[in-house]
């Protein structure tokens, strides 16, 4: 069972001869195809076992100088937004017959440089990269000799093709939605004081624009700092704000994880949502729809981002993309749910989920 | 900016000569190191731009015939358990100086075979693989000539090293926890009727053992079928059971996603948790702690699984693992939260989160 050693020179022919079947049948057994005659599979497996045969991967040559694989580098898979983005990219690539290898950078500068210049760029035809540590000041590091599509809000103006979302406009729409439900003391959770680039700065700008349109000032007491945008940091920012006695009638979490952290603290303090405090997030991750109460959010077109990034990258790899780098900005939609607009109870026997 | 063409033969020396700096300085700029004298970085960037220099990755040779990369293949990253497992494996590998390339199989048989026999096995030194479609009947497909550690409950008895959890015992403990809080009508959400292997069968066995110990029968009306273990399928199973008029005072979701789906339906129907129905999940994903109410769960030792799998694989790659294949079963712990034991409200000013 264990500790078998590969025997040099054993081929699929040898296995076929011992098992008394064709090479095609050996290949079918190894590749797990169904519809193999009873007894045949067992004979082939016995021959494989007896000879210590192993599939010789290194004999397979790459066609066309391409690997059929693309890289996707994201900060953290434990953040649902990036896990769901990865899932969407994988499915979009699969529809085009391409495999995705995923790398996680932990938002570390060193790891992000390694993504750009490390040896695993040998094995992919191109890269979809959502940097979080590197930014506009690192333009030289983005000078790479392989096709690349950038995601996110860290670097603009073209070292590569770029797919991004309408951060300012989407955040303004989320804030307007809270204002339209009569809220006036809207906490912003996820602020990054002093930053002028990146998602936090852009989304906060949208929040401030919506307040200005409504004739409301920006109250610094309502700006909740959170470094990384996790559930835990959202909970901490919400708790600090409540502990400080800040009056709040609504919360805009700059992503859904922060908003879910805020919901957690409101629940623990016995604050009712949305009666006392309305809450909206950003990203529309699957968690949002299943939160209790279901969390309103902004859907930033994740499927469109993934599909566009894959299409752009494959066009760049195939040499059919335009000479100039392309910047694509995806659509968004506010998704109102119970956390801002209250419960819409179904009739007793019907379920909103199964319907 | 765009459409630049790489000039053949341009070297780092050329860039250094044009910029009037050392090769080391060019390398530092390209690799994004801080502490470069003002002006120097701009000169190097201008020279890179002028010459069309690109880092030549293909010139870097692999050392020792190893790539320093391992593969991790999981069914779905959009399932938080696998996203968090991937995160844990990446961090464990990073502590050992190894990069992880992640692949998603979508629980497809074809994709799982491709993981075992596809060309990307050229580029990794070994594989950590959590199969969901392949099983014990596919032993031949697991005959590979590279180091591999299996995760999960699909295949036992040794085609490779194997790290798994105490499914039966952990599920029994979760069910006992519900029985100890006085529950008697415990719905099981996530059942796979007719299956005798895999997580569903093992966890259901634990549930049945706990009921038997308490002298309770297994009521088929309380077994909620769910194919894939998603939030949506958990919600559907819960809704079907309630629609059928089945009396329920507790729910055991065979994973947290199923339990969160059930919580969602209970919330929508106005059923209070845990007063009317107690709910426990399995996996202890981060979502569980942040659910409203916070979801009790079983922590299956995810960090230990990741660390053990990485250590075993690296030992196998280095040739220091035992000849016989190893099977490691990790510890578990029931984590009681509000969804089974009710609220423990903090003092007015204190926060359970910040504390």
From TrEMBL, chains A, B:
Keywords: DNA-binding, Transcription, Transcription regulation. Gene3D superfamilies: 3.40.50.2300, lambda repressor-like DNA-binding domains. Residues 10-64 form the HTH lacI-type domain. The keyword 4Fe-4S does not apply. Pfam families: LacI, Peripla_BP_3. It comes from the Bacteria. CDD domains: HTH_LacI, PBP1_LacI_sugar_binding-like. One of its GO terms (molecular function) is transcription cis-regulatory region binding. This is LacI family transcriptional regulator.
